Amino acid sequence: MSTKEKGRILLSVTGMNPRPWQELLSQEREVVTEISDPQDPTINYAVAWKQRPNLLSRLPNLRAIFSVGAGVDHILADPTLPDVPIVRIVADNLTQHMTDHVLWRVLDHHTQGLAYRAQQKRKVWRELPQRASTDISVGIMGFGELGRASARVLLACGFHVNGWSRRERPFPGVATFHGDRGLTPFLNATDILVVLLPITAQTAGIVNYDLLRQLRKRNGLGGAVLINVGRGRLQKDADILRALEDGTLKEASLDVFEIEPLPKTSPLWSHPRVVVTPHSAATSDPAHLVGPMLAQMAAFERGEPLKNIVDRQAGY
Ligand code: NDP
Ligand code: OXD
């Protein structure tokens, strides 16, 4: 089948460079980035990141929407979204990026990285207390694809790992908790909280002061630590600052923020106990993700079911 005979793709990404996606997708299929007719009958697939609202609602032959990220809040934000399957990214390459980032942040807090960097700036030669990873519990809030992969890596380094999810998710070597009733015991047993939740109606604002207060403070680290690599609207930036000021939190690593890019006026930028990264924990790399995306389209056209479909009711 020639490129022209295969289902045509509308590539609609904002806030990132569409060119590499376009180049790779068009090796197998026709790709357009604009449509003049909102009811263009030639479009079968959309590949999207923060697509323009209302863009997809009237395409009569749209068969599926492919998210270029693991999260799909940016797609679901459009209330006029048509009722076609939404496929999200689940891929070894993205997972590897995330587990690398989570491991980096956990180890840095665990090994007093922030304090040593502050000492170096002042030319201070002082040894700080050292703890073994086996004395520390990392709690992963959002125990899905990325959460479970992070758990594997952390377990291999000797950390205790707790996992919290919506439904029961038993996992070897991990103390798992679920639902509202599982949240307090999960937090009470956690020294370093890693947030890997999707943003939904249920999870928005969940990382607030009351939640942070429930983390274990009397621990080998000398306080509780927050690492948010999920979504910014899960957290209340002001509550994190308050928790850092009154000792509820010792340190934080934040990759995501209520407003992105993080406004230059935010005190989080210069807080001595906060590490800021620019929503870069696990960047979608088209070189690794376009191949599987095209393979899914081809399999779908052969009659096979799509994989990694979003549960629109649950919102992720
Ligand atoms: P998954 O859908 O595989 O996992 C989501 C997890 O969150 C599941 O364990 C799910 O529970 C749990 N969850 C959802 N809602 C609730 C709730 N109300 N209460 C308790 N648990 C809940 O997603 P991924 O692991 O692939 O990705 C997680 C998120 O990471 C993405 O949605 C995205 O926002 C973020 N992300 C951030 C990136 C970055 O660069 N910063 C890069 C990639 C992703 P259950 O298991 O019961 O379904
Ligand atoms: C994603 C992201 O959801 O990069 O994949 O945030």
Characterize the structure shown.
The protein has 316 residues and is an alpha/beta fold. The protein has helices at residues 19-25, 73-76, 92-110, 113-121, 145-156, 179-188, 209-213, 237-245, 286-301, and strands at residues 8-13, 31-32, 43-49, 64-67, 86-87, 137-141, 160-165, 174-178, 192-195, 225-228, 251-254, 274-276. The chain has nine helices and twelve strands. The chain has a seven-stranded parallel sheet. The chain starts with 7 loop residues before the first strand and ends in a 15-residue tail after the last helix. Oxalic acid binds next to loops.
In short:
The protein is α/β, with parallel strands linked by helices and about 325 residues long. It is built from nine helices and twelve strands.
Outline the fold blueprint.
Blueprint: E1 8-13, H1 19-25, E2 31-32, E3 43-49, E4 64-67, H2 73-76, E5 86-87, H3 92-110, H4 113-121, E6 137-141, H5 145-156, E7 160-165, E8 174-178, H6 179-188, E9 192-195, H7 209-213, E10 225-228, H8 237-245, E11 251-254, E12 274-276, H9 286-301
Parallel strand pairs: 1-2, 1-3, 3-4, 4-5, 6-7, 6-9, 7-8, 9-10, 10-11, 11-12
Helix pairs in contact: 1-9, 3-5
The site of oxalic acid (OXD) has 6 residues, from loops.
Overall radius of gyration: 21 Å
Q: How many beta-strand runs?
A: 12
**Average pLDDT, all residues:** 97
Bound molecules: NADPH dihydro-nicotinamide-adenine-dinucleotide phosphate, oxalic acid
The ordered H/E elements are EHEEEHEHHEHEEHEHEHEEH
Q: Count of helical segments?
A: 9
First and last CA, distance? 34 Å
Instruction: Give the low-confidence spans.
Output: none
Percent in helix: 25-40%
Morphology: elongated
Taken as a percent bin, the fraction of beta residues is: 15-25%
Reported for the largest beta sheet, the result is: 7 strands, parallel
- Overall SS class: alpha/beta
Strand neighbour order, sheet with most strands: 8-7-6-9-10-11-12
